[in-house]
Specification:
Elements: E1 12-18, H1 23-36, E2 40-49, E3 64-67, H2 70-77, E4 84-93, E5 97-103, E6 114-119, H3 132-156, E7 160-165, H4 172-176, E8 184-188, H5 193-202, E9 206-208, E10 211-215, H6 229-242
Antiparallel strand pairs: 1-6, 1-7, 2-3, 2-4, 4-5, 5-6, 7-8, 8-10, 9-10
Helix pairs in contact: 1-3, 5-6
C-alpha cells in the first residue's frame, strides 16, 4: 500500500462543500466528481464502523486503512458497505499527485463538510515570489480547483463551499460562532437573498448554476476586487444563521 495515498504534500489546497443532504451520499458524489476531473483511484480507503458520531477523524479509535480492488473501492466510497463507512479515499492525478476525498472537522451530530484535498503547489507560495512559469502553473491549478468546486456544488446540492490553502470549511455552527468562510466562496441560491447580498457587499461575485461564486483571491479571479474582511465575517455569520436547524 502506498504510504502517500491519503497524504498529499503540504501545504494543502482544499476544495470543500457543505450540503444538508446525507454526507455519505455527498462523499460518493465527490468521488465521482474527481474522477470526471481526471483523477484515478489509488484503491485506498480509510473507514470506520457505522453508527459512531465524531468531530475529528482522530476521535474514532477503530479507523482502518485498506487497499481495495476496483469493485470493492467503488462499493466503499459510495457508502454501500453495510458495516463500515468511508472517511477518506485516495486518488491520483497526473502532474499534482495525491488527491484525497475526505470528511472535514465538524461537531458530533452535525453534518460534516466534504472536501477534495491535494498539494497546493504554487498556490501555497506568496504570488510576489512567482516567476512566469509559477504564474502559469498556479493559474492552471486554480482553474482545475474552480471547476471541481463548481461540479461539487451542482452534484451535491451544496448550500455553500470554499477553496483555501491550509483552511478547513467551517460548519454552520462554526459560522454562527464567527468563523469566516474564506475569500474564495460559493453561496447557494436556495439560501435567503439577503445572505448572498451580504457576501456581494464583501467581495465581487460570479453567477453559477446553483448560486454565486465569489473569487476574492488571485489567480481565482484575474483581478480580484478588495475583500472587506469585516463584512465577510458578518456574511459568514448570516450564512450560518440561515442554516440553523439544517445541520443535524
Amino acid at each position: 500500500m502506498s504510504k502517500d495515498a491519503l497524504y498529499p504534500e503540504p501545504p494543502h489546497l482544499t476544495i470543500a462543500v457543505w450540503s444538508p443532504e446525507d454526507e455519505e451520499s455527498v462523499f460518493g458524489r465527490a468521488c465521482d466528481v474527481v474522477v470526471a476531473a481526471g483523477c484515478v483511484s489509488a484503491g485506498v480507503v480509510e473507514s470506520a464502523p457505522r453508527g459512531q458520531q465524531y468531530a475529528m477523524l482522530q476521535d474514532l479509535d477503530d479507523r482502518s486503512i485498506a487497499q481495495l480492488g476496483a469493485d470493492a473501492f467503488e462499493t466503499a466510497v459510495h457508502g454501500l458497505d453495510p458495516v463500515r463507512r468511508p472517511l477518506r479515499a485516495g486518488y491520483r492525478i497526473k502532474g499534482w499527485g495525491t488527491v484525497v476525498v475526505e470528511h472535514l472537522f465538524g461537531t458530533e451530530g452535525e453534518t460534516h463538510p466534504v472536501a477534495v484535498s491535494l498539494a497546493a503547489d504554487r498556490l501555497g507560495l506568496p504570488d510576489s515570489t512567482w516567476k512566469a512559469s509559477d504564474r502559469k502553473a498556479a493559474r492552471r491549478l486554480a482553474e482545475w480547483a474552480t471547476g471541481v468546486l463548481r461540479e461539487l456544488t451542482v452534484s451535491t446540492g451544496a448550500a455553500y463551499g470554499a477553496i483555501g490553502v491550509e483552511e478547513t470549511l467551517p460548519t454552520p455552527s462554526a459560522l454562527r460562532a464567527g468563523a469566516p468562510v474564506g475569500s474564495v466562496v460559493f453561496v447557494g441560491s436556495a439560501l435567503p437573498d439577503g445572505v448572498q447580498d451580504r457576501f456581494r457587499a464583501a467581495l465581487p461575485g460570479v453567477e453559477w448554476p446553483g448560486g454565486v461564486f465569489f473569487p476574492g483571491w488571485h489567480p481565482f479571479a484575474e483581478s480580484p476586487g478588495a475583500v472587506d474582511q469585516k463584512k465577510l465575517t458578518g456574511a459568514s455569520v448570516a450564512l450560518g444563521g440561515a442554516l440553523s436547524g439544517s445541520a443535524e
